[in-house]
Amino acid sequence: MRLQYPEAIRIIRVPCTGKVDILHILKSFEKGADGVYIVGCLEGDCRFDNGNLRARKRVQQAQALLDKIGIGGERVQMYNLSSGEGPLFAEIAAEMTAKIKEMGPNPLKEALKKQAA
Amino acid sequence: MQKPRYVDISKCTGCGECAKVCPVVLDNEYDMGLSSKKAAYKLYPQAIPGAFAIQKADKAPCRLACPAGLNVQGYVQMVGQGKYKEALEIIMKDLPLPGVLGRICPHGCEDACRRCEVDEAVAIRNLKRVAADQFDPRAIKVPCAPPRKEKAAIIGSGPAGLSAAYHLARKGILSTIFEALPEPGGMLRVGIPGHRLPRNILDQEIEVITNLGVEIKTNAPIGPDLTIDALFKKGYEAVYLAIGAHKGMELGIPGEKAEGVQQGVDFLREVNLKGTAPVGKKLAIIGGGNVAIDVARSAVRLGAKEVNIIYRRTRAEMPAWEEEIQAAEDEGTAITYLSAPQEVLTQDGKVVGLRCVRMELGEPDSSGRRRPVPIPGSEYDLEIDQLIPSIGQTPDLSIIGDIEDVGTSRWGTIEVDPITYATTKPGLFAGGDVQTGPWVAIGAIAAGKEAAESILRYLDGRDMAEGREPITNENPQYRPIPERIKKQARSAMKELPIHDRVGNFHEVELGYDEETGKSEANRCLNCGYCCECFQCVDACIAEAVCHDQQPVERDITIGSVILCPGASLFDPSPYEGFYKYNQHPNILTSTEFERILSATGPTMGHMKRPSDGKEPTKIAWLQCVGSRDTAHCNNGYCSAVCCMYAIKEAVIAKEHMKGDLDTAIFFMDIRTYGKDYEKYYNRAKDEHGVRFIRSRVHTIDPMGHDLILKYSDEMGQLHEEMFDMAVLSVGFEIDQERIEFAGRLGISLNKYNFALTPAFKPVETSRPGVYVSGIFQAPKDIPSSVTEASASACAASIDLSEARGTDIKTLSMPEEIDVSDQDPRIGVFVCDCGINIAGVVDVPAVVVYAKSLPNVVYAQENLFSCSQDTQDRMKGIIKENSLNRVVVASCSPRTHEPLFQETMQACGLNKYLFEMANIRDQDSWVHGSNPEAATRKAKDLVRMAAARAALLTPLQEKRIPITMRALVIGGGVAGMNAALGLADQGFETIIVEKEAQLGGLARELTTTIEGDDIQRYLIELMDRINRHEKIQVLTETLIVGFGGFKGNFYTELMVGPAMYARKIEHGVVILATGAIEYKPKEYLYGEDHRIMTQIDLGKRLEVKGADDLNQVVMIQCVGSRNEENPNCSRICCQSAIKNALHIKELNPDTEVWILYRDIRTYGLHEDYYTAARKNGVKFFRFSKDEPPRVEATDKGLFVIFKDHVLQRDLRVPTDLLALSAGMVPTDTGELASIIKLPRNEQGYFLEAHVKLRPVDLANDGIFLCGTAHGPKLITESISQAYAAASRAATFLSQPEIILSAVTAKVDQSRCAACLICVRVCPYNVPRINENGVSEIDEALCHGCGICASECPAKAIELNWYEDQQIMSKLDSLLEGVL
């Protein structure tokens, strides 16, 4: 369909969203990512039964932690869609990009800059 | 016969550039015509193979009608796109004079145009002119073969001569044209006046030919000074004679030689060469052809006062073009019809008058026109001072003198071979008017082209005729004219005002402007689909398009055939009076609506109604359109799927509209009979608020964009309701094409033309070895179709079991190189994918960048990485550079990873040392508008890929031998058939049955509804089982233990009656534990002997008959569709009807009343419902809230129920009450816990996927069939049993299984035995071993990685997705960000 979506996104392939470790999410922010989102199959349609539900839980945990340390829990999101939903994928990419733009860069960047100054 | 695809699948990369440039816009049948596609197309994004195809029919009629065979459709499409240069390139393949013929061609193509069937022909000639008006033909680069040394002479520079010269030049043969007149062009020059063909246009286009190196010698007449023989002697090796027909035919009446009489062609020649000619005051022209008209219109321009054309027939027979006649009249020419000259009246040798006679039309002559006959005594005289006879021309052969060896016809034309245009004199060819007599210019063009081909072959000494016979097609296939096409009048052309035409020869027709040209071109129907403009050929960098592919006939030796041609959908168009489907855009079929709901559909999943794009707020579904309908069509059957899909569509539509949508389904019976379907129906009703209206709509009245539906409810009350859209729930039909297909295969069809199959052999057709599955056999849903597909595969495999494995080719791979001690040496291949990637991403820059990355020792650009030659090159590079890791930056690993991995394996590299960066689907395709950002992203993706590649380690896929034995649990009809399905293929099978005998529930049954004897079948079946050498039966046997994994299970048994323990090893399990009839707790069952279940009744009828029964009442849905068991038991409606029909057969006087909620005789069973009603069985509906009541008193048995039509209670005494008790599964609680099998709430086993894997369990190697899966008929159980056997055989037929290397592994030194992995694994694989730590069996692991993510000690890693490998991507992506 070749629907256009914002280019700020880099995809990392995993066999199932159930493989996404909370450490992967948190490390991303530690290294300076502005946002992370996880795209899994529709709930109830996980090839491995419940991987996507587990991923959602981890995202919720990560959100709570990121909120606590001031990075902002909203920066990490979980989305579910089927492989036939290209338009929705593009919509999500746009939505997430807009959300992150609104929130601004990862606060760690500012903090490190100040530290350096 | 394999039809050509016109695209080489092995080369096509699916990039879609062909579709982008294809001008032909067609209805997209995948979107049910709601969107458009191109003639170069891929049906839908996920289509397999993922290559494009070109849709072609026969060559368009316009093209066939053109004497020169111009690709009319092609250039019309190009004009429609404003691609004038490309249009000319197409035209000039055949015709060097586009602007000339674009003005004066009589356009036979337009007579053939199928647009006439809609309104008027496409103005093809005018469109040709548009191309030449918009782009100078002289600027077209005409491809020519390298020049040859031979020379040819052409006599005459008319269209035939010019065409021959042009086509010879294209073939590398330069010619000299000898023209008698002072200017070249022949009749184009001297026969056609400037107001029709401006001189400069002719001059320019002759330049097209002379620019190729052709020399034209004017004033060089053939004759005594220059004979044909002299030309040969001068060294011209071939001569083409094209002197035309320039000699006017005489009238043959007295006075014709008088002064003032001039031949039409002579007059025109004078006018056209000198610019003027003497004209009289009163001019008579004899004739009705274009020459007569040209003379008249020229004479008017030269100042003749009275111009009168005298024609002996009527206007209808006039050979001149109507528009020309009209123009002549408009300019002041008078035409006298039915009149012929008899004598030229002269005075002093000068013309003074003309004696004419009136004519009338007699019998048709040889030309088909009615012959004019003089009316005696009707002579009259006209006063004239000039007479121009224009009744025809002939070639003037006298000028060439007698040529030896050349034949001429009695019409004074040269005789030639009709295919080669060779005269009887070697080296001399002839064509154009000199050969045909006066004919159209395009005919002469064609003749010249053919002669050029002959001359080439003559010079080469080849056979001139070979392969040139005209191909005729009696029954050409064209694109059907779209049903909803809008009429659009042919575009008119601007003309010079009449008052501006006097005294000059300015062009009258002024051409189309660009806009008019495009809109006119878009009227073309694209009869041939593909227009062969070959734009796709230029666009395809992979060179995959091949328009010259031909149909291929193949003979394949086969042992069996499986038919799954499907069915067509009912077309409501013929019943327009009621459905108004073609009249109103907001009346859609359900399949069209399905596309509107689809995310990839015409509206991208946005709910919009077609007429105005409004978001609908109210949608109605009309059920049973083309099903259960013998009034409109003869489809007495139920289509089996429409209730379910209508409910689904209503629910999804509501979800799309987030609640702002009212949906109403108008139905007769809701038939949600499948496994768990009833629950879905209940949710639609109760949770989503879908309205279900039990009524048949009798009228659909369109009102603007909206629709008013009129219907009456069950009580007869009339209602009207307005909707935004109406969806017709169309059913299945077998169309003529499939009927003929069945005929060719020689299989029998039933009365509705579905393939006939026996009840106990559900996938066997009437022809041995030919099997059937899917809706070609009967309407059915996807799970049943998929099941049958597997079942027919099983049946076919039994036939083919001896041949199993004989056609397998094994690929040998070199031994793997051990790279564990080597530092990473990464090679990066960055793909252009033609222009798919390179058109956006700066690929050379990415290559340079890749070379700078750590561990990367080699990087290069590939045009197409997936092409065979690139693969071979890559192998060389991998070896030469000793690469031990490979990164390909191209497309999706989903489609291409295996290919590249195979390439690595061929180089001795482990396939897990491979990584892909998707810079197409995830980059160039989706960021096409921002090349800089896309290049940046491509670099990031390559960097990330290289980072991970450096950390990859070789992984070994484990191979495990399979125990070639099957265990079937349950010895009913399903279990026995499953066992036979496997054993007949040669696999050892053990049936475990807990009862003392085989047979299961079928032991209780009498006949099928079709009347087949179940007991007899059962006896035969058991006999086959008992005699089968591959089958072992263990009765009275219990399963007490189970273990192992796919391909290597073991089961522990207690075998009765002695109950000894036994352990069996086996590769697969088939569950066929069955179900039993529900024992009703309701309706006093068990308390009165007159109350019984349908199974009881069936047996009773066998034993006692029905003579003693005056009244029988049956109650449906007993123990089904209630709180306790929300599902429908699927079989009870047909059981009741089967028994009701049996009673009626035994005793027609017995009253049988069936109290029901919905009658669910799905598929072909509907016929039995119809038969029951016809035989007097009475059906009364009750609602779930008001079930019937039963009273057993001394006076008898009574059933009380509320009748919905009468709206009051009825109390009926009955001799017998039959309860249609549902089905309940056998108690499998213990079995499920021993084998760890998932079951639903009712206790039926759960399949892995309801639609796609209906007989597989989520546990690999375990399969399911029969009523253990859900209620079903015996026929359905048999086909499911075969399906399960088929699926099991896919396991057993391999000597070993290859396990994926992507599995989890535990670092036991770090394991704290916290049990988290044990709890989170969806497959219960991890276990705490004897050492007290977690252990994961790689044979059982599915590779999801959930345990690895959850392990708090990080003791678990998933191969190929190790944390450090994932983190390396993050590290490299975010390098330097902070």
What does this structure look like?
The complex is a heterodimer of chains A (117) and B (1378). Chain A has helices spanning 22-30, 51-68, 86-103, 107-116, and strands at 36-40, 76-80. By secondary structure, chain A is mostly helical. Chain A has one domain. In chain A, strands 1-2 form a two-stranded parallel sheet. Chain A is globular, with a radius of gyration of 15 Å. The termini of chain A are far apart. In chain A, 31% of the residues are buried. The model of chain A has no long low-confidence stretch (mean pLDDT 93). By secondary structure, chain B is α/β, with parallel strands linked by helices. Chain B folds into nine domains: 17-139 and 475-483 and 487-494 and 510-539, Fumarate Reductase Iron-sulfur Protein, Chain B, domain 2 (Orthogonal Bundle), CATH 1.10.1060; 151-246 and 396-460, FAD/NAD(P)-binding domain; 248-392, 3-Layer(bba) Sandwich (FAD/NAD(P)-binding domain); 568-733, FAD/NAD(P)-binding domain, CATH 3.50.50; 745-802, no CATH class; 826-951, Rossmann fold; 960-1074 and 1226-1297, FAD/NAD(P)-binding domain, CATH 3.50.50; 1077-1224, FAD/NAD(P)-binding domain; and more. In chain B, 28% of the residues lie in helices and 20% in strands. Chain B contains 39 helices and 59 strands. In chain B, the strands form 19 sheets. In chain B, strands 7-6-5-8-19 form a five-stranded parallel sheet. Chain B has a five-stranded parallel sheet with strand order 22-29-23-24-25. In chain B, strands 39-38-37-43-54 form a five-stranded parallel sheet. In chain B, α8 (159-170) runs parallel beside α10 (199-210). The chains are: A mainly alpha (117), B alpha/beta (1378). The interface between A and B is large, with 41 and 48 residues.
